[in-house]
Design brief:
8 strands; binds nickel (II) ion; single chain; five-stranded antiparallel sheet
């Protein structure tokens, strides 16, 4: 196990554009993915991008299990996504609440494309190509924004819907990305 400290908003490394991964199936990439997974699990996160642990590479992980406490929440398959490309399927935008491990204790309403196609590679260079909607699409857009130095507060349009999780959702144990 190696749980890494997650950088918080204000750290300049979160604002940098990450570099593509050029070699797959390497020990260094495997080690990075173990660290990312350990860190995400330890913080009960729904996703994590490599820049959040100070590694400037285009690598994200995400996944949400269906939860009996939130039966309406969509599940998202556990995924390793490297060098991602996101293509919106149409112009539809949906507003939804997000939290981020780099912005702890806060949540905000963020507009995202409702329907996207995303492509990229797994840890061995195998191609991933999925067309998804809703919460799955939201999580992918949030994580991939981290690779371009964008944190979700930078996309908020209505700051009356931005605040502390404990005030907005008292007693709820919500996952951050
Ligand atoms: Ni995040």
């Amino acid at each position: 196990m190696s749980i890494k400290p997650v950088l918080r908003m204000g750290d300049e490394r979160l604002l940098q554009r990450a570099e593509p991964v050029r070699e797959f199936s390497t020990p260094a990439l495997r080690d990075l993915l173990v660290d990312m997974n350990d860190t995400m699990q330890a913080l009960n996160g729904a996703g994590l991008a490599a820049p959040q642990i100070g590694v400037g590479l285009r690598v994200v992980i995400f996944g949400v299990q269906s939860n009996s406490r939130y039966p309406d929440a969509d599940s998202v398959p556990q995924t390793i996504l490297i060098n991602p490309i996101i293509t919106p399927i149409d112009e539809q935008i949906e507003e939804g609440w997000e939290g981020c491990l780099s912005v702890p204790g806060l949540r905000g309403v963020v507009p995202r494309y409702l329907n996207i196609r995303y492509q990229g590679c797994d840890e061995n260079g195998g191609l991933i190509d999925r067309t998804v909607s809703g919460f799955h699409a939201r999580v992918v857009q949030h994580e991939c924004d981290h690779l371009d130095g964008i944190l979700y507060p930078m996309r908020i349009r209505d700051f009356s819907k931005f605040g502390f999780t404990e005030e907005l959702f008292p007693g709820q144990d919500l996952q951050d990305e």
